[in-house]
Each structure stands twice: as structure tokens, then as C-alpha cells.
TrEMBL record:
Alphabetized InterPro entries for the sequence: Acyl_CoA_acyltransferase (IPR016181), GNAT_dom (IPR000182)
Domain N-acetyltransferase positions: 1-163
The protein, known as: N-acetyltransferase domain-containing protein
PROSITE patterns: GNAT
Species name: Flavobacterium arsenatis
Length: 163
């Protein structure tokens, strides 16, 4: 599997994968994440324009999508946490991680990619997203507390630091 920057030409495939990921969430009891059209085409295009959008390719076919941001404070929602981050160093964050049913291992590839860019990664997810929380726990991420996103809703926050 390969990772490459997404382009505007990829938008229709990305949105299809997001719809499929949304269906998988619902089947696993996660009925409140990615509602009301989120993530929208506008959001994905912003990711692309900010050069933070990435696709996972398998046999030259797009099978996954994620947004990867990094820097001093790439996600202002992470400034306040009910709990404690592992450190206050610059970090990377993965958002909008989506895969369909065709290929397994998208999350692992996305995080492997992130750790080639930084040794410090944060992520948040809804409490109901049990598959993502299981993945994070299995892969050495530590639960740090609760953050709140733009609409005020809570998210469980995780971080992993490779020393």
C-alpha cells in the first residue's frame, strides 16, 4: 500500500470511501460520528488545498483517506483538555481517517506515515467509536482525557510518543 497527497481529481472517490466508512461506523454502533454531512466535500477540498489530504493506494486504486496536520499547534481544539497530554511538544494529528471494506490495514498505514513525519501524534475520536479506540489501545496510544470540538461535543483524546 502506498500513501500520496490527494488531489482535487480524487474528490469523488474520497467521498465514496467516506460514505462507506460512515456505514461501517453505523453497523458498529457508532451512530453519532460523521453526521449532518460531515466531512463534507468542502472540508476535504480544504484539506487538499492545505496540502494535508492523503490517500492510500492499493494496486493503484484509492482505498483510504486521511488528513494529517503537524506543527506547534495544528489543532486548536487540542489546546484545552480535561486531562493531560503526554507532552507539550509539536505534534501531528490525524483526522477524517476513512476506509472502505475492500482493503484492511488503512489505519495502520496512516499512522505509520504520520510517524515518519513526527515522533509525537495525537488523535481524538467519539467514545462510541470502539473499533478506533481498540486500534489505538493495541498500537500503544495512551488515553489522555477529553477535548471538545468546534460544536462543543466531547471526544476521547489519545497520544503516542516514540522516543
Amino acid at each position: 500500500m502506498q500513501i500520496q497527497k490527494a488531489t482535487q481529481a480524487d474528490i469523488d472517490v474520497i467521498l465514496t470511501i467516506i460514505d462507506e466508512a460512515r456505514s461501517i461506523m453505523r453497523e458498529n454502533g457508532n451512530t453519532t460520528q460523521w453526521t449532518n454531512g460531515y466531512p463534507s466535500e468542502k472540508t476535504i477540498l480544504e484539506d487538499i488545498n492545505n496540502e494535508q489530504a492523503f490517500v492510500c493506494l492499493f494496486n493503484d486504486k484509492i482505498v483510504g483517506y486521511f488528513c494529517f496536520m503537524q506543527g506547534e499547534n495544528p489543532d486548536p481544539n487540542y489546546s484545552l483538555i480535561e486531562g493531560n497530554w503526554l507532552n507539550n511538544d509539536p505534534y501531528g494529528v490525524i483526522h477524517r481517517l476513512a476506509s472502505g471494506r475492500s482493503v484492511k490495514g488503512i489505519a495502520q498505514k496512516a499512522f505509520d506515515f504520520a510517524f515518519t513525519k513526527t515522533n509525537n501524534v495525537r488523535i481524538d475520536t467519539l467514545h462510541e467509536n470502539i473499533p478506533m479506540q481498540n486500534f489505538l489501545n493495541k498500537n500503544g496510544f495512551e488515553y489522555c482525557g477529553v477535548i471538545y470540538v468546534g460544536d462543543g461535543s466531547p471526544r476521547d483524546a489519545f497520544q503516542k510518543v516514540i522516543i
